[in-house]
């Protein structure tokens, strides 16, 4: 999992504006919506043993181990428009989405394809 410049900047702002000491963000997935799952994000006051840790653009992100196989290769972004702003996930493991945008369908990452892509890069 990686972060766009915009996501890293926004996460840094959120951490700095927090009322409590925060060291990063925890990302996961939960069963929700008509397509299957939705992304979750929570403050991290102290790392949770067993979580996968990613540091990108100077920002610490921990990934719930139950979500790791579904988030491999994902780029987290932050987008702003006239209608609002939100974090988005460009996830190569996404196989579908509901019409309202509340949830997505994810498949576990293809580890063989990821390894081949890295070898060719």
TrEMBL record:
SUPFAM superfamilies referenced in this protein's UniProt entry, alphabetically: HesB-like domain (SSF89360)
- Core domain residues are 2-102
Question: What is a single Pfam family found in this protein's UniProt entry?
Answer: Fe-S_biosyn
Q: Which family does it belong to?
A: Belongs to the HesB/IscA family.
This protein's name: Iron-sulfur cluster assembly accessory protein
Native species of this protein? Devosia rhizoryzae
């Amino acid at each position: 999992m990686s972060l766009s410049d915009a996501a890293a900047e926004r996460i840094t702002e959120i951490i700095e504006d927090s009322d409590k000491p925060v060291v990063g963000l925890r990302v996961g997935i939960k069963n929700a919506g008509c397509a299957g799952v939705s992304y979750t994000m929570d403050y991290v006051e102290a790392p949770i043993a067993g979580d996968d840790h990613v540091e990108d653009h100077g920002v610490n992100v921990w990934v719930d181990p139950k979500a790791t196989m579904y988030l491999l290769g994902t780029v987290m972004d932050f987008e702003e428009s006239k209608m609002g702003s939100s974090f988005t996930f460009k996830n190569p493991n996404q196989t579908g989405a509901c019409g309202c945008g509340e949830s997505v369908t994810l498949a576990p990452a293809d580890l063989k394809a990821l390894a081949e892509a890295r070898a060719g890069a």
